[in-house]
Amino acid sequence: MDLYVRLITEALPVTIFVSAAAWLLGTIIGTGLGLAGLSRHRGLRETQFLVSTVLRSLPELLMIYLLFYGITAHGIELTPYTAAILALGITQAGFWAEAVRAGVQLVGPRQFEVAYSLGLTASQTYRKVIFPQLVSALTSPSLNMFVALTKLTAIAAAVGLPELLYTGRSVMDRTYDVLPVVVALAVTYLMLTIPLTFLVKAAEGRWRKRTARQTMPLFS
């Protein structure tokens, strides 16, 4: 019982905090990259594709090592918290960029055409037409990314972040009781991810119902 209390009161808040911070960072960077991939300038689109591909190809653990050990060797010290948030946020930004780019394309070019014909500027079109629909379309992928991040934080145990896996491993090293600790970790992760998974399913169902009712999301 003491193990469960420690995991829930000490390690779980760290996992949630790092996941949320990495999710926010990845969303901000990824949204910018995704919109860059829709630019009319070929050079910007190609740069976005290259950056997104590189970010999606790098293992998260390698990125954490690079930030925590590689940069530290050159005089820049990062805490395990900062290294984990940056590594997870940056790598997930590559996936989020593609989700944003696909989401805007899913809204459809006709939305832009109709908006421009009504006299809306590009910024007004994005703010009043595209973004509201994009938020609905990306709700499910956004929640999926957060679920993935809650599990990916486990790799930050490699740099000493006191999240769930690190805390469980420290107990195993002290008590040599592997199975009870592994079971406790599994239960804690399930307590965190199962409600989020049901939330993703509910968001997907709501989005399907909404799109089924609408032939054109904003303009008819």
Description:
The protein has helices at 2-36, 42-57, 60-70, 80-107, 109-117, 122-152, 164-175, 178-213. It is mostly helical. The radius of gyration is 21 Å and the shape is flat. The N and C termini lie far apart (59 Å).
Keywords:
single chain, 220 residues, mainly alpha, 8 helices, 81% helix, flat, disordered C terminus
The largest sheet is: none
Structure class: mainly alpha
Radius of gyration: 21 Å
- The gross shape turns out to be flat
Beta-strand residue percentage: under 5%
Our measurement of the CA-to-CA distance between the termini, rounded to an integer number of angstroms, reads 59 Å
Approximate helicity band: over 70%
Note the run of SSEs as H and E.
HHHHHHHH
Please report the total strand number as a whole number.
Answer: 0
- Which whole number gives the mean pLDDT? 85
Treating each run of at least 4 consecutive H or I residues as one helix, how many helices?
Answer: 8
